[in-house]
Structure formats: C-alpha cells, structure tokens
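Hi there,

I know you've been waiting on this one. I reran it after we fixed the sequence typo, so this is the corrected version. Both the input and the resulting structure follow.
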Amino acid sequence: MVEHILQKLTIRPEQFGKVAVVMGGWSAEREVSLMSGQQVFDSLTSAGVDAHAVDAGRDIAAVLNDGRFDRAFLILHGRGGEDGIVQGSLELAGIPYTGSGVLASALCMDKWRAKGLVSLKGVVTPAAQEVFSLEQAEQAASVIGYPLVVKPTNEGSSIGVSMVNKAEQLAEAFKAARRYGPVLIEQRMTGIEVTAGIIGGVALPLVSMKGADEFYDYKAKYLADDTVYECPVDLPADVVAAIQEMALTAFSALDCRGWGRVDFMLDAEGQPNFIECNTAPGMTSHSLVPIAAREAGLDFPSLCLHILADTLSTEELAA
C-alpha cells in the first residue's frame, strides 16, 4: 500500500501552474502555520513548482483570484483556516485546494462532535463531556473521574490544554481552556501517544512521541530539542495494524480527504483510543507526518508534491 503512493506520482512541476502556499492567518496557531508554510514553500520551489507564499487574511479568496492562482496548498492551522471557513471561501471562488473540504474541516476542529461521530463507527474514544462553566466542569469530573485532560473543544497544537490529576487543579485548567470557547473534560489515558498520518487513502507508519515534561505540549511539538520520536513504534504488528485501520475508519467517518493525521492514546491495558483528527497537520522540522512519510520512503519535497497532486483534476492529470 505504501509502495503504491510512492509510485503513482508522475506529475511535472509545471502542471500545477501558479500555486499559493497559504499560511499564517489569524488563529492562535498563526506562528506554527508560518513555520509549516515556510517549509512547504521552500520544498515546492526547490522541486520546480511556481509557488508563492501568501499570508492569509479574511480576503484570501479575493487575493488568490486577483493573483490568478491555479490552486492553493493550505497549511493554515486552527480556527479560521482549518475549520472550513477558508475552505468554503475557496469553494465559492472555484479555487482547488489541498486537504479536506468544508464539512470534514469543521467536524475535525470540533473535538466533541468528532468523538461522537467516530464512536458510531466503533472507534473507541475516551469518556468526555463538553462544558461551558466551572460548575459543569466539576460535575463532569465527578462522573468521569481523575486524572483528566481539560482542553478547548476547538483548538489545536495543545493550546489551552492542561493535565489535571486532582480536583484542586480543575478551576485553573478550566479557566485556561475557556479562553478559547467551549471546554472538553476528557478521561486521561495513561499509555503512550501514537499518531497515524494518512495520505492518498493509505495509513503511514505510526509515530510515537514523548516530551520531556508531563505531556506532548506546544513546546515539545515545536520548540524543544529533547522530544523523543519513535518510528516505527515499538508495538506488536497486530496492534499497529489495528490502529492504522482505526485511523482510516475515523478519517472516513469524518468525511476527510487527501491527507491528514489521526491521534491516539493507549490506555493502561494497551487499547488505542481516538483523540482527534487533524486535517492540516504541522509540517515543521518537528512534525509527525513528515517523520512517518520519511519512514515510508517519502522525503519532504515528495510528500508536499503528493499532497498538492490531489488538487489536480482528471483533465489536468491527462494533460
């Protein structure tokens, strides 16, 4: 399966036309997006693609139309870029773009609803409740039990996330997450964290990661040099295959397309639990999809070209 995606790309760089690498934006993940976007831009230009870095504003569709861009490589993270808003504006403008469409983008940004949908397909996910007040958070904690993860329902990159081991920590954690909107109170898994990158309908080799601190937070993801990555992961082959299958099931249930990343935590018994699905994962030097792709034999420029190739129409592919 992995060999299939390595072999199928026979695209000439000029077939992509003028490409906007859309990055930045106005979300809490702006800086991460700029880092990802620069890496993608550098790789596409080195591969001979006519790529242009575009810092997204709310007029992004007009900017791309006025600039006569043929397609967009969307590497926006967070709300306003990864939640279907920009995707909808590009649909109206008739500009092809990478990654998932409006529905999938919106669903995956909403962790609460994403968990509900994948569970209908038999994918296990930790017990959780969405809350809007500290009183509701306390009630949820009493039902779910400690330890907990407290996080914004609609953010990524571990922004606003806290590990809560006892009741005395809950109020501060709720306040930190509530800054970003609704809050998810979720059962905390005690096993390792693993992630499955997906491209072209194929689940890439799994990656596990561990930060030097208590959990894999923003610092560990993008800044620290002591984060430990393992690919391939040290898990039995049948467990790896089961996680990859769960990732593909969740990806399909959420109507995702093109590429993405599905995250899991293992519980104390080693059972994988779905945490979330990312429709525009990080593409920085520390990011997980490039690590998995490299293990599958796909270097970073080739990965970017594969992602971009999904925007080509049948007619363009035949040209």
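Quick highlight: The domain at 108-124+190-295 is CATH 3.30.470.20 (D-amino Acid Aminotransferase; Chain A, domain 1).

Best,
R. S.
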